[in-house]
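Forum: Protein Structure Q&A
Topic: Joint prediction for protein chains with partners

I've read a bunch of threads here and the consensus seems to be that you should model interacting components together rather than docking separate models afterwards. I'd like to see that in practice. Below is the full input, 1172 residues plus whatever partners are listed. Could one of the regulars post the assembled result?
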Amino acid sequence: MSFFFQELVNGITTGALYSLVALGFSMVYGVLKLLNFAHGDLYMVGAYIGFFVIQWFGGAAHITIPVPLLLLTMFVLAGGLVGGLGVAMERFAYRPLRDAPRIAPLITAIGISFFLESSALLLFGAQYRVYNTAEFISLSSGIQIGSVTIDSVQIMVLVLGLVLMTALQLLVNRTRLGRKMRAVAADREAAEMLGINVNRVIASTFFLGSALAGIAGVMGGLLFNQVTATIGFIAGLKAFTAAVVGGIGSIPGAMLGGLLIGVAESMVTGYISSTYTNLIVFGLLIVVMLIRPSGLLGQAQLQKV
Amino acid sequence: MSVDSQGPQVGTDEWVARQGQRREYLPSWLGRAQQAGERIGWWPKLAIACLAGLALPLFGLGGFQLQVGIDALVIALLAVGLNVVVGWAGLLDLGFIAFFGVGAYGFALLSSPQIGSAGIHLPTWLSVPIVMIAAALLGLAVGLPSRRLIGDYLAIVTLFLGEAFVEFTNNVAPSVLGGPNGITTIDPISIFGYQLTTNASYYYLLVIVVVAVMAVLRLLETSRTGRAWRAVREDPLAAAAMTIPVNRVRLSAFACGAMVAALAGAIYAAQQTSVFPTDFDTPILILIYAGLILGGSGSIAGAVTGALVVMVIYDGLLRSSTEAGYLFYGLILLTLLVKLRPWRRLALVLAATVALGFAAHAIAAAISASAVAGGPQSGGWIGDALRYWVVVPANAQTLGNWGFVVLICLLITLVQVSSRWRTILLPPTLCLASFVWETRLVTEPAITRQLMIGAILIVMMNARPQGLLGQRRVETAT
Amino acid sequence: MKGRLVIAAAAVGSLAVAACSSSSNSSTAASGGTSSAAAATKSCVASVGFEGPITGPVAPLGTEQLHFAQLAVAMDNLANKTKITLVQGDTQLQPAQATTVTQQFVSNPAILAVVGPAGSQEVEAVGGPMARAGMAFISGSATAVALTTGKYPTFFRVVSKDSVQGPQDANYIVKNLHPKALMIVDDQEAYSTGLVSAMVPVFQAAGIKVDHESVSQKVTDFSALVAKVTPETSVVVLPWQVAANAQQFGRDLAQEHKNAVIFGTDGLFSPGTFTINGSYVSSFGPDITAMPADAAIARAATQKFGSFGTFGPPVFAATHVIDEAIASVCKAGQTPSRSNVLAAIKNTNEPASILGQPISFDSHGDLNGGKFFLFKINSSGKYQLIPSS
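Posted by a regular:
Agreed with the consensus. Here's the joint model:
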């Protein structure tokens, strides 16, 4: 039984990470109907930023400032810088394509993805960068329930993930900016006619979504320890999957989708076989999509005649 | 030029305008050339392209160029098949690569020593049709979810299936499918008893096959099936109201695309004489999509052109530093030519850039010899021309990296500012670009290749979102 | 408008003229180069190709290989007074791209031999074209058994094959670690599955309970897999290529309080990255930082590109073999060509090399007497060589 719970804990932790990345993806899609394939690479940039912050403060083994301050710096810097990068991306590459057929920004996103990955290779080199989290957050600090261990990094990921997701839900549903975002998502031209500064709303959406991806990148680095230029691709794929399975455009849906994927992977690896994990999880997700064609929490798509 | 600067017109759309012959042409002799080009029909253009393709090796193409040509033609064939599904029927199929894989693996299993003690060695005229029919059946199976799923939801399910294919061939039944080691020693294609073993022979085969498939698809495009596909893409409800069997039409699109992909897969397997699971992973899918959309989704000629352009650049030109340099400088000059409006301004910017470069070089040389010790890394005449123009220090890695970051920031700024500031910022940006290229990018050709293809995709989609040969469509808001 | 057209035409025209003239220039340069080499053996000019996964899924490995190849060429040019240039081609570990790069090298008359490719699948894809062009190619990391059965007459490798390393390591585990149960995980690449299929029979014959798992190289979270490690399992065998993944696996083991010992192969040999106390690493390459004979190389490598693992030194050895072959051909007064360089490589007989053993090839291209080095990692993360008994 404890094996089940251990796998569950592992699954929920990784699921929370996928959810964070999926959230940003879903937000951007909701407002712009754009599948931003470069979103995963923003995750990668965030992870690198976190790594360099650790190096700046003395390297994993000799941190010169208290660990909570270090973590705060990492998150704030990663969120801010990656958010800025997202805004720049939107301004430079996506704004001219706002009225183009939906498939054109797909290729721009692919181009940005190539560019970001190879820039990381060029600027940071190809070798693996290792966070060495265990050096400054001891492996034994955590809680143990029976024979189920949850270490502090996992707890942090879960808590921070929950906090961010709730904050985002509140932002979208209770604040003025959130109202504007929902308006732009529903009908951009009408929103413009109502006096909403659409460009600024879209820029804010991109900033928030990208910042989330950056923070998720730092968390990924803390959890999985290794950073290289290609981690973004898988993260992006999982984000895309989680967002769509949960119902694209819906924030609770992205959360649910990410958790579902994380837990499914964990359980299948644990109970069936690690060889066929991906195959079985894919099959599961296809079944989910066939049962609920608009995703788990998505709204049924209205077809305008 | 002036046509493309306007956005989609409210109340007017391309189809209506085209029907009403109210087309605007480029001014003066370019417009007359455009009109003459349009008088030539589609079929004569295809014949000209076919002859040009067949005649190309006679101009002395070496083994490498033939290989690039083969790769490009395979992707072109795949793009044309994808065009049926994405461009004509409007179904975003992200698992298309699986049909390519089915074709390749199917051919490999049927024409190699893999199955049984000596293997099945079916002759080509038998194995290729079998493989195509198998792929068509798989296409029907994949298309079945499209009844309930629309748009991006269909995309994710097809993506799963595409990934599942790679996992399947990598992990399931390794004794039959070969696992990560794939299937090697595949028989070559034999046509009327003649076995194709050289690159040149596969090149000719591919040219003929691509042209034939284009012809068949053109016939389909102008037939009832093609019109049904386009109707379903534009408005499924209206199509259903017009008694078009929407689901069956979608399934036929999937099947047709799958058959073309399987054909490409069979030829690919025979030419490579081996297939591995990693040959059918997402990077190849990205290339096909890039080619299709760059060339113009919805147009057969566009799909082929875009795929050829992308592959010749990515797989051919960018693999060699000197040619990457030509492309780099050439594209910069081209962008300047197209974007800087009065030609006096263009001349001013170019003159300022040249002057700034010489001045910077002279100043840097005066300050310290090591600042210009590394010569421009580009080979050939570019390096010689730039020797006294670009500043390249001796140990330039960190400096080059910083230059790269500053260059990106400058480029983003250039987009935001007013046109006067743009003129002022352009010469330093151009000098910096050349600096970064000569210092850093040329020494890492593998990374530069990825950088440049990314940059080219971004710039080309910004410049022409409908693709090179695509038609601008007005999309109704959903 | 007209002014722009004039400038445009001038630019295009000059580019075209330049392109044409430079292509004819480069071809004459190539032929000029070889003829001048005949005239003056003191300027031994040649090119060596490098095929590797410089970008793509295993970019860290490919870049390390590239750096060591460049280092070897630089050091050998100094020592032998040759003018060898390294031409790089990126395969991204895809056999189709390896074929294209091979065709590029084959069409370049200046390239006389090739280092690489890195993966066994790529060797299968390019073996034919290389043989047809009579071009020798030496791989520093392709270990599949099927490659040296005579199919590829111009293929050589400076590492031992799976059928040697697998049973040797498995026997060590059985005799020295005495596990009752073990878990062996492959990473779904050919290198890994080859070793696993060589090792599992040995374990099963010894009556050990074997749990065979499989994860893709792209996976970076192993907590689910680690949860499957039973208390009985005392050894986890990880014949992986990516050391950082194994380090993460070790962390997850510690975090879930499992006591299994990790036994890894060459991919895990990475003193900067894989440092789990008590682990074993079996490598076809020695720890060159610990070998006095390799001090100069290790110093240069660390200075230029930081830490490195086990994929670089064999590529250094392979490049060195080619450089020496070219130099010997020049010294004998001949013009280096693909055929005489191939012959010289076949006759390679170096008494010492960076790998700590002599290098010579058998008739199928395998390294004669390939040694394996077993290391154990101590609590400060240092790799200690276990002397072979």
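Residues 244 and 266 of chain C are 13 Å apart (CA to CA).
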